[in-house]
Amino acid sequence: SLSHKLIRKSARPRSTTGHTVLVTGAAGFVGTHVSLALKRRGDGVLGLDNFNHYYDPTLKRARQKILEKAGVFIVEGDINDKGLLQQLFDAVLFTHVMHLAAQAGVRYAMQNPGSYVHSNIAGFVNLLEVSKSANPQPAIIWASSSSVYGLNSKVLFSEKDRTDQPASLYAATKKAGEEIAHTYNHIYGLSITGLRFFTVYGPWGRPDMTYFFFTKDIMKGKTITVYESPDKGSVARDFTYIDDIVKGCLGALDTAKKSTGSGGKKRGPAQLRIFNLGNTSPVPVSTLVSILEKILKVKAKKKVMPLPRNGDVEFTHANITLAMTELGYKPATDLEAGLKKFVRWYLSFYSGSKKKSS
Ligand code: NAD
């Protein structure tokens, strides 16, 4: 088949580190950055993405171009396509799978619940099915989400805290992913690491996220809506800069132990881990707006509204002690510095694409 041939020729990932990584969701925001970082240090990288239209597909194509320039090839396909996954695993010996493909976004789940079940549950199971039968089994590193903490009203979320009150279907599917990971680890000895990302932002970011469309709307003079909780004031998020998340992902990959395989009695305890990756410094969305006003030198038109029940939670704050200890994770970028980098990218990307289309 086409993908098989492509992989056999120029796209075959070359590694100088002994790591060969399948990155799912490689044309996505986090996937692009992680793929570039892996490639830069010499890991073999092959991407997989279905280029769905959840948000502007031209942004995904632009990321793909950057990746191709760096020598990372993306196979176009769905993680639910078992035949395709099998072909990829037959053609390439993956040591690791960095699984970042998912239906993201909490609010969209009310419009298209099926896409969450398809990508985050069925797709994840499909990927684990193919991975558990591969010889040797790859270690799996995958993106869960801070949203699993849901309506937990504790102020600082630790990995052992309760995750049984999801506020959205998105959160419920990520939580389901964590439990599915447990079963594949238990039965098949797959080594699986889940990473609970906290509101990731930065260059090449996702247009459906607040910091991104606030930037766009503030520049256009459009009124933005800031949500408030009745007792806690502005909704707050533990915004985490993309480069910090990438370091956490690489730390997780480098400390992942090889699976012990499904070899009956010889099977040892395979690794099953879960980590928060946040900035551990929550910022109210009202402050996010002031920082954007300062960087853009534009006063925002804003209205304040009570937080509706649309899947969003009021507050997120990561305890990152475990990731610091086990992964050498150490976030280094504060929100203002990170937003400056985002805005610089945003302005150059969108002025560039305007020039092209006129
Ligand atoms: P993204 O939407 O930019 O990237 C996901 C990519 O996966 C997209 O390019 C999409 O086309 C692809 N994809 C989706 N379904 C697929 C399928 N069935 N088959 C193949 N490809 C598919 O999102 P992101 O922000 O880069 O998020 C990456 C991961 O991190 C996701 O699992 C997301 O749920 C998780 N996460 C992100 C954040 C954040 O703040 N960005 C926070 C918590 C968790």
CATH superfamily of the domain at 102-205 and 240-278 and 316-333: NAD(P)-binding Rossmann-like Domain
Kindly report how far apart the N and C termini lie.
Answer: 39 Å
Order of strands, main sheet, comes to 3-2-1-4-5-6-12
Class inferred from helices and paired strands = alpha/beta
CATH architecture of the domain at 102-205 and 240-278 and 316-333: 3-Layer(aba) Sandwich
Helix content: 40-55%
Strand content: 15-25%
Q: What is the number of helices? A: 11
CATH class of the domain at 102-205 and 240-278 and 316-333: Alpha Beta
Largest sheet: 7 strands, parallel
CATH T-level fold name of the domain at 102-205 and 240-278 and 316-333: Rossmann fold
Which word captures the global form? globular
Write up what this structure looks like.
There is one protein chain. The chain has 358 residues and is of the alpha/beta class. The chain has a domain at 102-205 and 240-278 and 316-333: Rossmann fold, CATH 3.40.50. The chain is 42% helix and 16% strand. The chain has eleven helices and 14 strands. It has helices at residues 2-8, 29-40, 57-69, 82-91, 113-133, 169-188, 210-220, 242-255, 285-296, 321-327, 335-357, and strands at 20-24, 44-49, 73-76, 96-99, 139-145, 192-197, 200-201, 224-229, 233-234, 236-237, 240-241, 272-277, 283-284, 302-306. Helix 2 (29-40) runs parallel beside helix 3, helix 4 packs parallel to helix 5 (113-133) and helix 7 crosses helix 9 (285-296). The protein is globular, with a radius of gyration of 20 Å. Nicotinamide-adenine-dinucleotide binds next to helix 2, helix 5 and strand 5.
